[in-house]
Design goal:
The complex is a heterodimer of chains A (1500) and B (480).
Chain A (H helix, E strand, L loop, with lengths): L19 E10 L6 H12 L17 E6 L2 H11 L10 E7 L3 H17 L2 E8 L9 H5 L3 E9 L24 H19 L8 E2 L6 E6 L5 H5 L12 E9 L15 E5 L4 H12 L24 H14 L4 H8 L12 H13 L7 E6 L3 E6 L8 E5 L3 E5 L12 E6 L5 E5 L4 E3 L1 H9 L4 H8 L1 E3 L12 H6 L4 H14 L4 E3 L20 E3 L22 E3 L16 E3 L6 H11 L3 E5 L1 E3 L6 H18 L4 E5 L7 E3 L2 H14 L7 E6 L5 H9 L4 E4 H12 L7 H22 L5 H4 L5 E6 L1 H7 L5 E6 L1 H17 L27 H13 L2 H12 L11 E3 L13 H5 L2 E3 L9 H14 L28 E4 L8 H5 L3 E5 L11 E2 L6 H7 L7 E2 L10 H14 L4 E7 L4 H10 L4 E5 L7 E3 H6 L4 H14 L7 E5 L5 H9 L4 E4 L1 H6 L22 H4 L6 H22 L4 H4 L6 E3 L8 H4 ...
Parallel strand pairs in A: 17-21, 22-24, 24-26, 26-27, 28-29, 31-40, 32-33, 33-36, 36-37, 37-39, 39-40, 42-43, 43-44, 44-45, 45-47, 46-48, 47-49, 49-50, 50-51
Antiparallel strand pairs in A: 1-8, 1-13, 2-7, 2-8, 3-5, 3-6, 4-5, 9-10, 10-11, 11-15, 12-13, 12-14, 15-16, 18-38, 19-28, 20-21, 23-25, 30-41, 34-35, 51-53, 52-53
Helix pairs in contact in A: 3-5, 8-9, 10-11, 10-12, 14-19, 14-20, 16-17, 18-20, 24-25, 24-37, 27-37, 30-43, 31-33, 34-37, 41-43, 45-46
Chain B lengths: L6 H4 L10 H4 L12 H8 L9 H5 L6 H9 L3 H9 L5 H7 L3 H5 L2 H4 L5 H14 L15 E5 L3 H12 L3 E5 L8 H4 L8 H14 L2 E3 L10 H7 L2 E4 L5 E2 L12 E3 H13 L14 E5 L3 H13 L3 E6 L25 H4 L3 E4 L1 E9 L2 E13 L6 E4 L5 E4 L2 E4 L3 E3 L4 H6 L22 E3 L2 H4 L4 H27 L2
Parallel strand pairs in B: 1-2, 1-4, 2-3, 4-16, 6-14, 7-8, 7-14, 8-9
Antiparallel strand pairs in B: 5-15, 10-11, 11-12, 11-13
Helix pairs in contact in B: 3-5, 3-10, 5-6, 5-10, 6-10, 7-10, 11-20, 15-16
The chains are: A alpha/beta (1500), B alpha/beta (480).
Chain lengths: 1500, 480
């Protein structure tokens, strides 16, 4: 039995995509005083973080928890004595827990291997102790997979100097015995692992060393947080004493037992996700060959791979951290090297510290979070966040000398009078406790000492060079025949290059992608198009590259890399590339400078040299590259210059991939940089793929030529130089956005990270050139590429009778008769429209024939066919109405489409018994009530998206389903934007924003940075409306299955898998075309993974993204879908003709427009939509009958009834795989919600019953704890349900609470309810606030100064609509993000304050963090700028700093008086005391659009 | 560049403007007035540049309509003309004569008035001609292969141009005195000034196309010999068999076929022939039978000749004024179209069947007619006379504009061994080749009576097929 039962790859499931996320914390005694209390406190913290972990189908088997403590010598000595052996003094022996096989013989083998490794390190084991455990206390699946747990003790062996291979190292180098005990233990452990796992090939689930150290000891397992202490009776022993307890509670996306993945690891515990893991692991491996540490011997290969295979991202980071630490760096040094602050754009940082970071960047790319890391070596204990600060971390320092840090406050009861200060972890800062010297080391001091650790500045100024972009010189010659040869099209010039060169921004398109996947196309499709961009969803957030660009960087360091394990001047001898895409001038300058160290490899081959010439050329450049490296070349330029009638070129991506992988396999990749000079790359995606597959720089001369052509032909009235600059700007912004979608901040971490999935590339080609890239349906090989390249070349030179300077029309983005196939073309659109307008099913069948005909097939599923089955009579199949209940329309907001269109869909779906979706723009409350004629315009599905527009308590109360949109098919990982000119008075009202003011949705939900956050939001929404089902919308990509399993564990009721091809409305073209995968893959993967995890029956699956005919639905059902969504089909039924102009607001059909003249042209009727839905249901029924199914429930998941068409050239076995159902099906019954039955609000509701009914005021007092989450939400939902939109008169219900409130305190609090909290609150205070009042002040009895301490966590007032919040203290990051109307007073905030705010008033009586007012388009902020630092932290993109005037003084005074009234804030009182004198200290932040609006309204 | 994206709403479709009635009736010059730059640009700017341009789908040539509209709206005539030239064979002809299927599919035609695509095309090409941009385009190299084209109508010309530009030597054989077929002899000058045709033929000659007129293959020369002389033959003789009206009195003088009537007149206008009194409507009461475009051309011609009165009768009902439900957008709708000729004076009557031509002696005096209805009760339309509705129309001339029924049987086809289908058409495979290798057929002769734009498309496609066939053959010969 293995204790790691994460299955191997099967079907579409791949364990590589498993995620963890978690709660983390520590408590320590600053002076290093050991006590058992500290251990008990650690266990208590874990118990109170239970909600941050999760359990699987078996509720008693946790995902894992653990504790790291100082070596409890007293306890161990007693144990030793009892077991008959003697321990040396503390610190002179190593000890650790080992997970061993249950099989005795195997166990002996492991022990022997360990002993041998000890000998090599001049150690010997004194004893193996069986660790007592209580398996009867834990869940069945945890127990079934439990390892045999022993504790090993090792001491230095004075008789041995360790194994030495003769000649291994110079005699001058001291031997192993001279190393520290920790180093020797490390080497011994690594070698034991090597012996057992690498050589003995023992399953990784049979052997695992939890820790082995002389300083720390870890207990962990697949346990719930509450079980840990009881499971290991050791931990109960009063003699187990420590000054440090580092604890971790795990939430994994699966339910598979894995004892080893529990945390803490040997040095660290991690909450979050490492987004860049793939690139980090690849580069780490490529550096291994060059690792040198003389004292460790020559043969370091037994330590490799440094990053142990099959581990989690956290484990990988710990592996590298440990290596760097053992090799000599301090833990904070190693952490700051791997997870640096966002130093690149931080002008406030000291030059010395910048030099430290710049130097470290020469050694390694960064490991990007989101990460909260806690780490310790047993004497220091520290915690820090990555550059983005997307994980929470709060701490208290007590005046009895303790520090408590945790993902949230309230996990330990601390007497208020003991609190000395309360703070939070901040991005890029470290909370550092040195228990040896007994003090907290301030961040500045810590960083200062790191920066002073070596002569970084001198090394850099001596070694590091910088390559900036050279001045753009003459206009390049534009060569039409070259552009033709490289398959450039007019469309690309018009839609891609010209807009980029003109505006410097990425081009925008509309209505999703309905063109074939590259592998299904018969056109000349560039190799780039076979790669789909992956993106972050749920388990990690995308970054906001626009508003939070301060954390991002495209600078890279090129040139050969130096040695990693030591520091010296030679590692800095590299070149900083300021821009990754170079102009021709820059390349020339660089080549001149580098001279001999450059080698050019031509990608050309002669077309008449026979069919093998392509493959031979590919072999040639790989060999030549290796030779070039061997001869000391530092740079290789892959160039396709010189294409002509006789010579064609290898696709540059193929050449790059081949060379990059070849050199990686030869372990010399880090010794050279690869430049790609090609005429091919033109759009953002192309550059991203090149960097993702290892390019160090790209010179797109074809694009430059195209720009010159556009200018010379008069399509662009700019100089070449400014057009080229614009173009490069657009490319860089686009690259930045693609990085950010994956949650990656720097290009260095993206380079070579291969964050793509290939669709349609065969395994041989992947293996050779794109090693490790998932490609799940197989596809083309090198021979196919050769043929296609030659055909395209012949085609390009064949059309001499035409005007040669006019390129081919294209047709990839828009339909052209000569161009690419589009599913929605004039014939399919018009036939469907005729069918639904006339109600003629035979026309619908004609449409089906057109749509599903092999010649117009654009989808993977078009290459599937139904197997023969025994049919059933049609009348035995469940009726159309039953089927229609499973139909939903997609989330298209009122805003993106017209009111007429939006209401027509709602009316139609309500008539049919299906579900329509509000989209992310809210809904006019007038639509909630049924119409007199019996119809209803109320959308059953109310969407909650990152912008939270119109998400009021009333809106949520009126939902049948609440849908959390994590991503959307057309632009997964990106936010939306509704330009000001589309924000009409009506839209502004519906969205609770300001007319004419641009609305932007941030890329992430700022309350979902990880899976446990999603669980929290689901809980919040469930509280507001316990009757609604909660769904989560995901987009198909590799790994969506594991995400879906995590979402199921987060207790969602339905998961929607959207295909990456779907989409209506406007999106960046590169996202429409290149992000997200077909739903066939995502749906099937989700279904398979849920089945494997025993979670399938907990959730329903819906599928959308290109549902066009009943056949699509039948296939979706066979692949696991319960329900089906439609968007484009519904729009077309109403008149959309795929104008693809949604972004222009001029839809001539009145569908996607807010212009009244256009909207008046709308001719759609509900009947049309109904006909489309009914026809589709009818078509589905016919297929059901032919396949022998009477109900969809019966049919669901029967993928064996599908097969790939024999000539498809694709492998559908993964998609069609049916995993065996997991053994552990002891799930929670659907609908049963433990969290809700215990809700704090049940008590509130009970106590306020009369008040809600009668409106009689009531005041009540209650204690509150951190496990009481979303306090007030359920009460608010209940009030609104009872009393309607007006809720209760202000002040009706007053709750006086004491303690530390759990997350989402006062979420969606409605009018009439006031919560006053004496104590602390965690993240998301006042989320969605809708008229309620929240006041927070320090706990009674506390002595700390409120105004300089943190009382409230991150992301307070997110999406608040109205109401008031007063905090006598400071708040964390992203205060008031997307506030659209609430008034808030607080005494200091973290980074990104008032981000995306569109209304309301924020008064900040203290310091603000970086990036204040980013994306702020409405409302007003008043900031008391006490130290004059405000301007430096202010983001001026949307708003100005103004003088106070007009009504400001009155507004401010009223807010402060209310603040004093509710919190008694001394600071506010002192300001009021000298009010007019204090006014000068305030800065007023006024968004420019908002000012214009107020001016128009005369309300300024 | 911020462009106004609402132009399509703010600018209305402009009506076609014609020369004043009294002026135009006195001559045969073209009636349609050219548009000024400003109007042309404004009208082009109504094009929305749709992501799914139904106009392209409706156009048999697949013209890149939105692309040249976009250029025309900025007055970039040269580029617009280049873009137009990619697909349009003779835009100066379709620009004048095409019923503009594209406009039926224009997305604006769904709930508004379509873009004036036909006129936009005409504006572009005429500017190209007047600026001297349209020059002979010699092929880069000659292939050494030759093709004979039989007939010189729109299909033949389109095919000739396509093959010649691909480097083949093209020889066009025409039995009439001059090149052009129906374009020359069927379309009146007031719709297509023959100088427009000659201008194009001149270019083609300069590009190297050889025209041989007054030469009927099959009679003047044996087609088998021709086959030996050329690497390929393209038959594009059209459907010269006219639909006739087999009723009593058909033989009366004054009863004639439209092709003959129009042909005579066109020859007279161009000076190729003289005004034959038998075909001159001056002072006569004229009845045109047939409500199509040719009928309309006859009406215009008769009025110019000075007819005393012009009647036009039609067996079918009057088409509706707006798009009927059974011809939904984006189909090209059959709606009532009042042409410039109709404006010039005509009495139109529908659902009328001619029962007999009645004359005194050999001359026509009247038509005996009856009103009819179409009975749809059987599902298929059945023509029924309405009893008691018999009436007569006094007439001196009756012109039959009833369409065409098939290709002429001719020695040419016999000599080549090409047989006609029961419909009177030449069957071909998908590559336009008849059952005889190397002998191709295209145009009306292959597909039946159709529009000029279809003829151009047939010409282009048969040229591509012949080119492919020749290329394959030449490779064989080269032994490659």
């Amino acid at each position: 039995m293995s204790f790691n039962q994460i299955p191997g790859r099967q079907g579409l499931y791949d364990p590589a995509f498993e995620h963890d996320s978690c709660g983390v914390g520590f408590i320590c005694d600053i002076k290093g005083r050991r006590s058992h209390q500290t251990v008990k406190d650690g266990l208590e913290m874990l118990t109170r973080m239970s909600h941050r972990g999760a359990s699987g189908a078996d509720p008693d088997s946790g995902d894992g928890s653990g504790i790291l403590i100082q070596m409890p010598h007293g306890f161990l000595a007693r144990v030793a004595e009892a077991e008959g052996f003697v321990l040396p003094p503390a610190g002179e022996y190593g000890c650790g827990l080992v997970f061993l096989p249950q099989d005795g013989a195997l166990r002996d083998e492991c022990r022997e291997a360990f002993e041998a490794s000890f000998r090599q390190s001049a150690l010997k084991s004194t004893a193996w102790r069986v660790v007592p455990v209580r398996p009867e206390l834990i869940g069945r699946s945890a127990r079934d997979s439990m390892p045999h747990i022993e504790m090993v003790f090792a001491v230095p062996d004075p008789d041995s100097r360790g194994d030495r291979i003769p000649g291994d190292k110079p005699a001058a180098v001291p031997g192993v015995s001279s190393l520290s005990l920790e180093e020797r233990l490390y080497l011994a452990r690594r070698r034991a692992e090597y012996r057992i796992i690498q050589k003995r090939k023992l399953d990784k689930g049979q052997f695992y060393v939890v820790s082995l150290s002389s300083r720390t000891l870890i207990y962990k397992g697949m346990l719930t947080q509450a079980q840990l202490g009881a499971f290991f009776p050791d931990l109960q022993d009063e003699s187990v004493e420590s000054a440090i307890s580092l604890v971790h509670s795990r939430y994994s996306t699966n339910t598979f037992p894995s004892w080893d993945r529990a945390q803490p690891f040997r040095y660290s515990a991690h909450n979050g996700e490492i987004n860049t893991l793939k690139g980090n692991s690849t580069w780490m491996r490529s550096r291994e060959a060059a690792l040198v540490k003389d004292e460790w011997g020559k043969n370091l290969s037994e330590l490799f791979p440094v990053i142990q295979e099959g581990g989690s991202d956290s484990q990988a980071l710990d592996n590298v951290l440990e290596l760097l630490h053992q090799a000599g760096r301090s833990l904070p040094h190693a952490i700051n090297m791997l997870v640096p602050a966002a130093w690149e754009a931080d002008g406030r940082m000291s030059p010395e510290l910048r030099d430290f970071y710049r130097y470290q960047r020469c050694l390694t790319e960064s490991w990007d979070g989101p990460a909260a890391l806690a780490y310790t070596d047993g004497s220091i204990v520290a915690a820090s966040l990555d550059r983005n600060g997307l994980r929470p971390g709060r701490y208290l320092v007590t005046n009895d000398g303790r520090v408590l840090m945790a993902s949230e406050l309230g996990v330990l009861d601390i007497e208020p009078s003991l609190i000395e200060s309360a703070g939070r972890l901040e991005p890029g800062r470290t909370l550092f406790v040195d228990t040896v010297h007994g003090r907290i080391v301030p961040d500045a001091e810590l960083k200062g000492s790191l920066a002073a650790g070596a002569s970084y500045g001198k090394w850099l100024s001596d070694g590091l060079e910088t390559l900036g972009q050279a001045e753009i010189g003459s206009v390049p010659f534009h060569d039409d025949s070259l552009l033709r040869a490289l398959a450039w099209t007019r469309e690309e010039l018009e839609l891609i290059v010209a807009p980029m060169a003109e505006t410097g921004a990425e081009p925008v398109g509309s209505m999703g992608n309905d063109a074939p996947h590259a592998v299904l196309s018969d056109k000349s499709v560039p190799l780039f198009s076979y790669f789909r961009q992956l993106f972050a969803q749920v388990t990690n957030p995308p970054i906001d590259s626009l508003r939070e660009g301060c954390v991002m960087s495209l600078e890279t360091v090129i040139g050969p890399q130096g040695q990693l394990l030591s520091e010296g001047p030679e590692q800095a001898r590299r070149v900083v590339l300021e821009h990754p895409v170079l102009t021709e001038e820059t390349l020339d300058a660089f080549r001149r400078r580098e001279g001999d160290s450059f080698r050019v490899l031509s990608l050309l081959f002669r077309i008449d040299d026979g069919p093998d010439s392509f493959a031979r050329a590919l072999d040639r450049i790989c060999r030549d590259a290796e030779t070039a490296v061997a001869s000391g070349k530092r740079y290789i330029l892959l160039s396709d210059r010189g294409i002509d009638r006789y010579s064609a070129a290898l696709p540059c991506l193929l050449a790059l991939g081949a060379v990059h992988q070849y050199l990686t396999r030869k372990r010399v990749r880090s010794r050279v940089s690869l430049f790609v000079e090609s005429g091919e790359p033109r759009e953002v995606h192309h550059f991203c793929v090149l960097f993702g597959y290892g390019a160090d720089a790209v010179i797109p001369y074809g694009a430059y030529s195209a720009i010159a052509k556009i200018i010379s032909e008069g399509d662009l009235k700019l100089t070449y130089a400014s057009a080229a600059v614009n173009y490069l700007h657009a490319v860089e912004h686009g690259i930045m956005k693609v990085l950010s979608k994956m949650g990656i901040s720097t290009l260095m971490s993206y380079k070579g990270a291969q964050i793509f999935e290939a669709v349609g590339i065969g395994s041989e080609l992947v293996e050779r050139c794109f090693t490790g890239t998932p490609s799940r349906v197989g596809g083309i090989g090198i021979a196919d590429l050769a043929r296609r390249t030659l055909e395209a070349h012949a085609e390009a030179y064949a059309r001499d009778h035409q005007l040669p300077h006019i390129l081919d029309a294209g047709g990839f983005y828009r339909w052209r008769r000569t161009g690419e196939t589009h599913a929605w073309n004039p014939d399919t659109v018009s036939t469907l429209q005729q069918a639904v307008r006339t109600g003629d099913y035979s026309l619908y069948r004609k449409y089906v024939d057109l749509m599903d005909s092999p010649t117009s097939s654009v989808t993977l599923r078009s290459r599937l066919r139904f197997r023969d089955a025994v049919p059933v009579p049609l009348d035995e199949v469940e009726g159309e109405d039953a089927i229609l209940r499973r139909f939903a329309t997609g989330a298209m907001s009122y805003g993106s489409i017209s009111a007429q269109a939006h209401e027509t869909i709602a009316r139609a779906m309500n008539r049919l018994g299906g579900m329509s979706n509000t989209g992310e723009g809210g809904e006019d409350p007038a639509r909630f009530a049924p119409l007199p004629d019996g119809d209803s315009l109320c959308s059953k599905v109310k969407q909650v998206a990152s912008g939270r527009f119109g998400v009021t308590t009333w809106y949520l109360t009126n939902a049948t389903e609440i849908q959390i949109k994590i991503a959307q098919g057309a632009k997964p990982g990106e936010g939306g934007q509704l330009p000001g000119h589309k924000v009409s008075a009506m839209i502004a009202k519906t969205r609770y924003t300001t007319e004419g003011v641009t609305l932007i949705s941030p890329p992430p939900h700022h309350d979902i940075y990880s899976i446990e956050d999603l669980a929290q939001l689901i809980l919040d929404l469930k509280n507001v409306n316990p009757r609604a089902r909660i769904s989560v919308k995901l987009v198909s990509e590799m790994g969506v299955g594991t995400v879906a399993a995590g979402v199921a564990k987060a207790q969602a009721d339905m998961i929607l898998i959207s295909g990456g091809d779907g989409g209506t409305g406007a999106s960046p073209l590169s996202s429409i075309k290149h992000a997200g995968l077909p739903w066939e893959l995502g749906l099937s993967e989700a279904n398979q993974t849920l089945v494997m995890n025993g979670l399938r029956d907990r959730v329903r699956l819906q599928c959308d993204g290109g549902m066009r005919t009943g056949r699509d639905l039948a296939i979706a059902c066979l692949l696991g879908a319960d329900e089906f969504g439609f968007a484009t089909g519904a729009l077309i039924s109403m008149g959309c003709t795929m104008l693809r102009h949604c972004h222009l607001n001029n839809c001539s059909m009145g569908v996607a427009t807010q212009d009244e003249r256009c909207a008046a042209r709308f001719r759609g009727k509900a009947e049309h939509v109904e006909n489309f839905m009914r026809f589709t249901a009818r078509h589905l029924r016919e297929i059901m009958a032919s396949l022998g199914f009477r109900t969809l429930d019966e049919m669901r998941g029967h993928s064996e009834l599908l097969e790939g068409a024999p000539d498809s050239g694709l492998d559908f076995s993964g998609i069609l795989a049916k995993p065996a159902i997991s053994g552990s099906l002891v799930g929670i019954a659907p609908g049963e919600r433990a969290d809700l039955t215990q809700a704090f609000d049940r008590r509130l509701i009970h106590m306020t019953e009369d008040a809600v009914l009668t409106g009689m005021p009531v005041t009540l007092s209650l204690p509150i704890g951190n496990t009481d989450r979303a306090a007030g939400a359920m009460l608010s939902g209940q009030i609104m349900k009872t009393r309607g939109e007006e809720a209760l008169p202000a002040g009706t219900i007053k709750c006086e609470l004491t303690g530390t409130a759990g997350q989402s305190f006062g979420a969606w609090l409605c009018r009439g309810v006031q919560l006053r909290l004496d104590g602390f609150a965690n993240d998301y205070v006042g989320k969605g606030l809708f008229g309620g009042v929240i006041a927070i002040r320090p706990p009674e009895g506390s002595a700390f100064a409120a105004s300089s301490n943190v009382l409230v966590g991150n992301t307070a007032l997110y999406g608040a609509i109205s109401g008031e919040v007063y905090v006598n203290g400071r708040a964390g990051e992203r205060f008031c993000v997307r506030n659209s109307g609430a008034t808030a007073v607080v005494e200091g905030v973290g980074d990104h304050g008032c981000e995306y705010m569109t209304g309301g008033i924020a008064v900040i009586l203290g310091p603000v963090g970086r990036n204040f007012a980013a994306g702020m388009s409405g409302g007003i902020a008043y900031v008391l700028d006490e130290d004059g630092s405000f301007a430096a932290n202010f983001n001026p993109e949307f708003a100005d700093i103004e003088e106070l005037g007009g009504k400001d003084a009155d507004r401010l005074r009223a807010a402060l008086e209310r603040h004093v009234e509710l919190t008694g804030s001394p600071k506010a009182q002192s300001i009021l005391n000298v009010f007019s004198g204090s006014l000068a200290g305030f800065r007023k932040v006024m968004p420019r659009d908002y000012r214009k609006y107020l001016e128009r309204k005369g309300e300024l | 560049m911020m462009t106004n994206v609402f132009t399509y709403i703010e600018t209305r479709r402009a009506k076609v403007r014609y020369r004043p009635l009294e002026e135009r009736l006195r001559d045969y010059r073209e009636v349609e007035l050219p548009r000024q730059d400003e109007e042309s640009m404004e009208q082009s700017s109504r094009c929305m540049n749709c992501g799914t341009p139904f106009c392209i789908n409706n156009c048999p040539l697949g013209n890149f309509i939105p692309e040249w509209n976009a250029l025309a709206k900025e007055g970039r005539w040269h580029e617009a003309w280049e873009r137009l030239s990619l697909t349009a064979t003779f835009p100066e002809i379709t620009g004048r004569l095409c019923p503009a299927l594209c406009e039926g599919g224009c997305v604006l035609a769904f709930n508004d008035e379509p873009v004036t695509i036909r006129q936009n095309e005409l504006d572009i090409i005429e500017r190209a001609f007047s600026n001297g941009w349209v020059k002979p385009r010699q092929p880069k190299a000659r292939t050494g292969l030759s093709v004979a084209i039989i007939g010189s109508g729109p299909t033949a010309l389109s095919c000739a141009q396509g093959l010649n530009r691909r480097g083949h030597s093209v020889h066009v054989f025409e039995r009439d005195a001059r090149i052009g077929g129906f374009l020359r002899y069927g379309i009146p000058d007031f719709k297509l000034d023959k100088r427009v045709l000659d201008r194009r033929l001149d270019l083609m000659e300069k590009e190297g196309v050889v025209f041989e007129c007054g030469h009927e293959v099959g009679r003047d020369r044996d087609a088998r010999q021709l086959k030996g002389d050329f690497d390929a033959i393209v038959l594009s003789g059209g459907t010269r068999n006219c639909r006739d009206l087999d009723v009593p009195g058909r033989g009366l003088s004054g009863v004639m076929l439209a092709v003959d009537y129009l042909g005579k007149n066109n020859r007279a206008v161009s000076g190729e022939g003289s005004f034959d009194p038998a075909f001159n409507a001056r002072g006569k009461r004229v009845v045109v039978i047939g409500g199509g475009d040719t009928g309309s051309d006859c009406v215009g011609t008769a009025n110019r000749q000075g007819a005393a009165s012009v009647h036009q009768i039609e067996l079918m009902p009057r088409p509706p004024d707006s798009r009927p439900p059974n011809q939904p957008w984006p189909q090209f709708p059959r709606v009532y179209k009042r042409t410039s000729s109709h404006e010039e004076g005509v009495t139109q009557d529908y659902l009328v069947q001619t029962k007999a031509f009645v004359g005194s002696g050999s001359s026509l005096e009247r038509l005996d007619c009856v009103r009819v209805e179409w009975d749809m009760s059987s599902g298929k339309p059945v023509l029924k006379e309405i009893p008691g509705t018999e009436f007569s129309i006094d007439a001196d001339m009756a012109i039959l504009a009833l369409g065409f029924v098939g290709a002429e049987r001719s020695p040419l086809l016999e000599q080549l061994g090409v047989e006609l289908s029961p419909q009177g058409l030449v069957p071909t495979d998908g590559e336009f080749m008849t059952r005889v290798p190397g002998v191709f057929a295209a145009g009306d002769m292959r597909r039946g009576q159709s529009l000029i734009v279809w003829a151009f498309q047939e010409g282009q496609r048969v040229a591509e097929s012949v080119d492919r066939w020749l290329a394959a053959g030449s490779r064989e010969k080269d032994g490659k």
